[in-house]
């Protein structure tokens, strides 16, 4: 192929990341749709279920301690492979355990493995895309999280009704091994890939003043050094304050609609499908908006901050969910907030790859992801306590209203702190 006409293989790479992220979120969200069944079989209270969420989040945070640096060390191809094998095995283990303790071990394995997905995927985007395209590429692959959430309300009840809850975990967990085949066939870093030409290679590195990645053992950036950089803390704060909101959307929305609007979770659920479909639009649209602002001449960091401020405002109306008198009003408000979260997420991930060199990206994403998971550990304690308290009082809906009020404020608070930390973002030189 002539080098004069640019190939576009980088978008094939995004497709691989998209499907991996879809599987990642499908596997972690199965538990939310089986909550009533699992509570019955294992005799769990609301707080017991929150403990299962916390176990996953704790393992996820601990996994990020390892995977962020490990992927920077091993490279994206091997690092992603290790992550996917661990989380797929963990997902399938849910279907064979017989006790609450065994279920907790399965959640731990799943959390440890799934922690590698985003550090690996963000590093892949940094390796394959110039900065002006990264937000869109991140938005596209990040929308896989939403597709996984769209598939789950249809797929999980169907498997539950025919084969039982055990097979719901086993079947969804096995899908990851199918993806792994395609990953090894179609993926390699740009400098080693035979499917791209010189024109695309030059495009990928058109605005990067560092050498192309080698995707092999390299110099590991020490976390202690990264913690001394203000830009690291911007990412940490943004993830810590907003990731818990997304986990609430994933793990508690099904039971919210079941308890408040008597939604039958044993059947495919249209309201949840619509909410998670909206998040797909938010993820891609969020990436597109900041990329569009950059192409129109706005500086990269101002474009990211402007887009994120808009998305933070879009979450505020979820406060009005407490006044919803029918299910579709609640669906509309929650859809807007969930879509805004994914748009926010696409930009905060991309901002990390904008600021830090490629050899440190996975480590920084790991640190920020760990912070998000720590928030995700603390928030379920509050959720479980609030919901159990109001459930005993006979008004669990009031408990959900308190949680929605917290969600409404979280993103604006995060944006303000991030802006105060670094009014003018600068590229980090290591």
UniProtKB/TrEMBL annotation:
Domain Major facilitator superfamily (MFS) profile: from-to ranges: 13-426
Keywords, ordered alphabetically: Membrane, Transmembrane, Transmembrane helix
Parts forming coiled coils: none
GO terms for MF: hexuronate transmembrane transporter activity
Topology relative to the membrane: Multi-pass membrane protein
UniProt-annotated location(s): Membrane
PROSITE patterns: MFS
TM region positions: 52-71, 78-97, 163-186, 232-253, 273-294, 306-324, 364-387, 399-421
GO CC terms in record: membrane
Gene3D superfamilies referenced in this protein's UniProt entry, alphabetically: MFS general substrate transporter like domains
Matches recorded under InterPro entries: MFS (IPR011701), MFS_dom (IPR020846), MFS_Na/Anion_cotransporter (IPR050382), MFS_trans_sf (IPR036259), Sugar_P_transporter (IPR000849)
Pfam family, one: MFS_1
Family matches, as PANTHER family: HEXURONATE TRANSPORTER, SOLUTE CARRIER FAMILY 17
Name recorded for this polypeptide: MFS transporter
Lineage, broadest ranks: Bacteria, Pseudomonadati, Bacteroidota, Sphingobacteriia, Sphingobacteriales
